[in-house]
UniProtKB/TrEMBL annotation:
<dbReference type="InterPro" id="IPR000878">
    <property type="entry name" value="4pyrrol_Mease"/>
</dbReference>
<dbReference type="GO" id="GO:0004851">
    <property type="term" value="F:uroporphyrin-III C-methyltransferase activity"/>
</dbReference>
<protein>
    <recommendedName>
        <fullName>uroporphyrinogen-III C-methyltransferase</fullName>
        <ecNumber>2.1.1.107</ecNumber>
    </recommendedName>
</protein>
<keyword id="KW-0489">Methyltransferase</keyword>
<keyword id="KW-0627">Porphyrin biosynthesis</keyword>
<dbReference type="InterPro" id="IPR006366">
    <property type="entry name" value="CobA/CysG_C"/>
</dbReference>
<dbReference type="InterPro" id="IPR014777">
    <property type="entry name" value="4pyrrole_Mease_sub1"/>
</dbReference>
<dbReference type="InterPro" id="IPR050161">
    <property type="entry name" value="Siro_Cobalamin_biosynth"/>
</dbReference>
<keyword id="KW-0808">Transferase</keyword>
<dbReference type="InterPro" id="IPR035996">
    <property type="entry name" value="4pyrrol_Methylase_sf"/>
</dbReference>
<dbReference type="InterPro" id="IPR003043">
    <property type="entry name" value="Uropor_MeTrfase_CS"/>
</dbReference>
<feature type="domain" description="Tetrapyrrole methylase">
    <location>
        <begin position="3"/>
        <end position="211"/>
    </location>
</feature>
<keyword id="KW-0949">S-adenosyl-L-methionine</keyword>
<comment type="similarity">
    <text>Belongs to the precorrin methyltransferase family.</text>
</comment>
<dbReference type="GO" id="GO:0032259">
    <property type="term" value="P:methylation"/>
</dbReference>
<dbReference type="InterPro" id="IPR014776">
    <property type="entry name" value="4pyrrole_Mease_sub2"/>
</dbReference>
<dbReference type="Pfam" id="PF00590">
    <property type="entry name" value="TP_methylase"/>
</dbReference>
């Protein structure tokens, strides 16, 4: 009898997945994964596991939530072990409650495995959302559904001695800042915007309520990004421990004809590298073809390294000499 595992993949650094998450992936027959899942994590699944992408991005959904729910039911009814791999913590704006309710209604066995959420990963950007005597409370919220309800919260009051952590707020950043100002928050209140938090591609803007919108446009930051408003966010202006890693910011497409373990892959990400493995030759795995296609435009920005001359030959032949 199979089981469905609703698993938090963490914010991006693949090393942040929980041990229980690793265990679930190791026994998966199918992995149903989201757009914000680091692809390195997919290599924790058995070579026999099916990899099913159901990612959702703004204005473009591969599969709607109802379709995802039904897919989980269909797979579960086949007696398969299914891992629903979701970015961050599935209980923080991850709609895990809807998926769990659907599975319960279908009388299917399931388990929820929490993950590390982006609000915790702000430490990769140089600050914690709570800090003694500076930020002693925290509100995690989103303006995506109803901005009116968002504006009804005492945002300015909370941000005086705490942090307001805003998920999925980039498309309404200007409105969000105006809401704080309208409630009486100081124009100089620190705001941090962190894009791809804990990935090697992490970027951030640390500014104030009256300047952050312009600086975000200037640096061309966009989703996925976290917005943190409050005094603690100002500490992000300094380079963090993560941003000081020797290879932070390097984007590496590693082409190899040799198998790699998950531990070998995370040796790269632990150096601050945005790492993407690409297997050719005897190590080729057709399950990742669709993933490569989705990442194709991003991969143009990566530095290419080859494990062997044979791997280079195979890759260039596959790419038609484009690289």
């Amino acid at each position: 009898m199979g089981k469905i595992y609703l698993v938090g993949a963490g914010p991006g650094d693949p090393g942040l997945i929980t041990f229980k998450g690793v265990q679930a992936l190791a026994q998966a027959d199918v992995v149903v994964y989201d757009r914000l899942v680091n692809p390195v994590l997919l290599y924790l699944a058995p070579e026999t596991a099916e990899l099913l992408y159901v990612g959702k991005s703004p204005q473009k959904h591969t599969m709607g939530q109802e379709g995802i729910n039904q897919t989980l039911v269909d797979l579960g009814q086949q007696g398969l072990n299914v891992v629903r791999l979701k970015g961050g913590d599935p209980s923080i704006f991850g709609r895990v409650g809807e998926e769990a309710a659907t599975l319960a209604a279908a009388n299917l066995a399931y388990e929820i495995i929490p993950g590390i959420t982006s609000a915790s990963a702000t430490m990769y950007a140089g600050f914690s959302v709570t800090e003694r005597l500076i930020s002693e409370k925290c509100l995690i919220c989103t303006p995506t559904a109803k901005l009116v309800e968002f504006a009804a919260e005492p945002l300015a009051q909370i941000s005086q001695g705490g942090s307001v952590v805003i998920y999925m707020g980039m498309e309404r950043l200007e409105e969000v800042c105006q809401t704080f100002l309208a409630q009486g928050a100081a124009a100089t209140l620190p705001v941090a915007v962190i894009q791809w938090c804990s990935w090697g591609r992490q970027q951030k803007v640390v500014a104030t309520l009256d300047s952050v919108v312009a600086k975000v446009h200037e640096q061309d930051l966009h989703n996925p990004a976290l917005v943190v408003v409050g005094p603690a966010a100002g500490k992000g202006a300094e380079r963090s421990w993560f941003e000081q890693l020797p290879s932070f910011g390097k984007r590496l497409l590693y082409v190899t004809d040799q198998p790699m373990t998950f531990s070998e892959m995370t040796e790269y990400t632990a150096q601050g590298i945005d790492f993407y493995p690409y297997f050719v030759g005897d190590a080729y795995d057709e399950r990742f073809d669709s993933l490569h296609q989705r990442w194709a435009s991003d991969l143009q920005d990566y530095t290419v390294e080859y494990a062997t001359p044979a791997a280079k030959t195979a890759f260039l032949k596959e790419q038609g000499g484009r690289r």
